[in-house]
Design brief:
The chain is mainly alpha-helical and 213 residues long. It has a domain at 13-127. 62% of the residues lie in helices and 0% in strands. It has helices at residues 13-34, 36-42, 49-66, 72-92, 98-127, 148-160, 163-176, 186-191. The protein is elongated.
């Protein structure tokens, strides 16, 4: 499942929120299916393990819907499920055990916050039309501003023009990109010899046995 949306970037803030809610819903659903006894004991809901398993299946279904291309219906269904969760936790708040009663009250507050977050995310999706925008298409980008062939031709010309000119062009490239050559500075410039250009014929070869006076 792809999670990159929008024209120029990956996830927007709303998409990241919806994805986080969907992943949380999947994790909570798995926990309620795998360990309903521990959850029931924590919140004073002993004897309601079957109900917690049903809530777990509901959470997984809501999580899958939230991660789909149209998450708004699943988000609103999560709001309804949150109301059921708070009603169930209210039963645990009547427990004779003080730790279970405290956990149930904390759970009611947490679920109320999650319900508000679910409603907020559903409202954001509704303002945008419900569905996420299509994934961004980067298939026409090569990473080379002038294209692959133009870049190949540039370096081919540098090789054909000779190593001296290629070295000179490389120095220009570093200078334009903000890089500095090694040995730069007044002291290095004083001891540096003038570079021989390609058009400078330089010293003519001397035949063996011929002396220069």
């Amino acid at each position: 499942m792809a999670f990159k949306y929008g024209k120029d970037s990956s996830l927007s803030g709303a998409d990241a929120l919806v994805r986080g809610i969907g992943l949380f819903s999947l994790g909570l659903g798995v926990a309620e299916l795998v360990a309903p006894g521990k959850i029931a004991k924590t919140f004073g809901l002993e004897g309601k393990e079957t109900l917690l398993r049903a809530f777990g299946a509901r959470e997984i279904a809501s999580g899958i819907g939230t991660l789909s291309s149209d998450p708004q219906p699943a988000l609103w269904s999560r709001v309804g499920g949150d109301v059921l969760d708070m009603a169930t936790l209210a039963l645990g708040a009547r427990s004779d055990r003080q730790d279970a009663k405290r956990n149930a009250l904390i759970g009611i507050g947490a679920v109320a916050g999650i319900a508000a977050l679910d409603a907020f995310a559903a409202t954001l999706m509704g303002k945008r039309g419900g569905e996420r925008p299509p994934p961004a298409d980067y298939s026409d980008r090569s990473g080379l501003p002038k294209g692959v062939e133009a870049s190949r031709g540039y370096y081919r010309q540098k090789q054909e023009r000779g190593p001296a000119v290629a070295h000179h062009d490389a120095r220009d490239d570093r200078r334009h990109s903000g890089g500095k050559n090694k040995g730069s500075g007044p002291s290095a410039a004083a001891g540096r010899q003038p570079e021989q250009m390609e058009t400078d014929p330089g010293s003519s070869p001397v035949a063996p046995g011929v002396s220069l006076s």
